[in-house]
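FORM 12-B: Structure-to-Sequence Request
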């Protein structure tokens, strides 16, 4: 087991971060209590109002400045959304290519590139948030929380005589745990043993409403892995330990559920029994996304028929009578042949 895993785990369990200012001065940054979090929102409101009356920009006023200086446009957000979809598709591809290690590594490199590009686009819109009323208020709130949660080892509140609140805040932000670290902890044997023998969040010795944010996240990921292991379609342990591939598995499961939900909705819309048993049922879509979900409800044969019709329409420049469609004509011929057979059978 990695030393970092053990260190991070016990940091979360005890609810504090060790902060060495200098030799002879070690402080501990504790996670805020519900009382401190509640009161901090008053600090936010006070600073926001003060900043507003000083003429500092509100967030909405920054948008035109970004656009005028060609730093951000709504197209950046649309591009970021497209990249997110590409990342999802790549993760599904990674899951399906798990045993092909060389191919898997190439896919992961592409995912890393796309995620980096997404972060660049996503952060453009918030690049000037620090000079807005919201940014000033958020900074003041976080600094106030730090000022109320840094203690000496003996439990006495620090007086900030030899260190600044800003330094402590930067240290905490710089040592924030990543999603990868939380997931690694949630999978670790050390934590799984505690989690399985404990009683959920009671393992921290406090009611759920008083656990820290880090503890809550660790529990969230632990429950996530519990659900994976309990699934009848659970992947192998090797896949579970690979964040990218497991994300791909999650995406596949989510799409299955969405497809089933959409199918149930369509079935609910079709009340007429004659329509329900028809060979083809046309459902109106509200938008392109809805149309894509409805299209996905078709099986492989139906999708092939749709592509065949599209090719025929393209060839005929979109002017084709329904009965002239190749698959429809084929069905008609089959029905006629069957009628003739039934007719001669009846004459015997």
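FORM 12-B RESPONSE
SEQUENCE OUT:
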């Amino acid at each position: 087991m990695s030393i970092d895993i053990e260190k991070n785990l016990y940091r979360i369990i005890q609810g504090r971060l060790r902060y060495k200012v200098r030799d002879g001065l070690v402080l501990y940054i504790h996670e805020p209590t519900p009382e401190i979090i509640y009161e901090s929102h008053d600090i936010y409101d006070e600073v926001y109002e003060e900043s507003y009356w000083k003429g500092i920009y509100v967030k909405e006023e920054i948008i035109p400045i970004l656009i005028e200086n060609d730093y951000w446009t709504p197209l950046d957000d649309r591009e970021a959304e497209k990249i997110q979809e590409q990342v999802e598709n790549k993760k599904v591809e990674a899951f399906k290519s798990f045993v092909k290690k060389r191919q898997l590594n190439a896919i992961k490199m592409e995912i890393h590139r796309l995620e980096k590009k997404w972060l660049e686009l996503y952060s453009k819109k918030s690049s000037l948030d620090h000079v807005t009323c919201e940014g000033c208020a958020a900074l003041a709130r976080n600094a106030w929380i730090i000022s109320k949660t840094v203690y000496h080892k003996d439990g006495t509140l620090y007086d900030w005589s030899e260190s600044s609140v800003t330094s402590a805040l930067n240290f905490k932000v710089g040592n924030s745990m990543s999603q990868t670290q939380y997931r690694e902890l949630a999978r670790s044997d050390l934590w799984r043993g505690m989690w399985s023998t404990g009683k959920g969040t009671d393992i921290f010795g406090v009611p759920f409403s008083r656990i820290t944010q880090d503890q809550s996240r660790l529990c969230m990921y632990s429950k996530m892995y519990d659900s994976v292991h309990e699934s009848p379609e659970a992947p192998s342990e090797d896949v579970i330990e690979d964040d990218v591939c497991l994300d791909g598995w999650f995406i596949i499961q989510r799409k299955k559920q969405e497809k089933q939900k959409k199918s149930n909705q369509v079935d609910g819309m079709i009340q007429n029994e004659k329509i329900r048993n028809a060979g083809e049922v046309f459902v109106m879509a509200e938008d392109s996304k809805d149309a894509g979900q409805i299209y996905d409800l078709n099986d492989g044969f139906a999708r092939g028929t749709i592509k065949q019709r599209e090719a025929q329409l393209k060839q005929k420049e979109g002017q084709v009578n329904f009965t002239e469609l190749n698959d429809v004509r084929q069905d008609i011929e089959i029905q006629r042949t069957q009628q003739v057979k039934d007719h001669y059978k009846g004459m015997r």
